[in-house]
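Good morning C.,

I know you're traveling, so I'll keep this short. The sequence:
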Amino acid sequence: MLELAERKILRQIQGLPNNTANMAVYTLVGAEPIAITLDKNVLTFFMNIVRNSGTIECEILRRQIAFSDQRGKDFINRVEKTLSKYNLKSSSYYIENPLNKIEWKRLVGIKIKEYWKNECHNEKMEKTSLKYIEIQNNPLNEAHNIWKSVKNNSKDVKAGEIKARISTQTYIFQAKRAKFDPKCDVQKPFLFMIYIFPQKMC
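The tokens, ready to paste straight into the viewer:
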């Protein structure tokens, strides 16, 4: 439900329709999916427990590792799945070799960026509607050039929305509309380009 709400808000902010691919919704503004935020919290909480080796929480965690069932829904199973998801070592390794806060944050950040970038490239290969979107070097927390170039005025924002819709193939061109509406005027199908790229059309 959180993911659905997040994507709905991001679509509304960018003026994108509901049929826009999920990956495009996130990467155009450099937003972080809720799932990744939750995974970060799980991994941070796990390492906080591991670093305090003399506490009851750490002993409970050791016991869970020893007796855990891979099909169970306890905390350690979720940790193991999250570690595996981002190509990190097992929880038993980090129990014996805990990392300090800075090292762990840096390692998790690198692995999550690699994972999300690969996910973006894989989805781009699977969906033809994404072939015109260039994946940024850091799709997380870095807006796409479409929105980076937008200035703080209504004209630029409107042009940015049209660019975003063209790049995600959700913009309906006059030529396509004419196939379904015989009354549609297709004499000037590229006038919108003068509005979006005035310097290139002059």
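Safe travels,
E.
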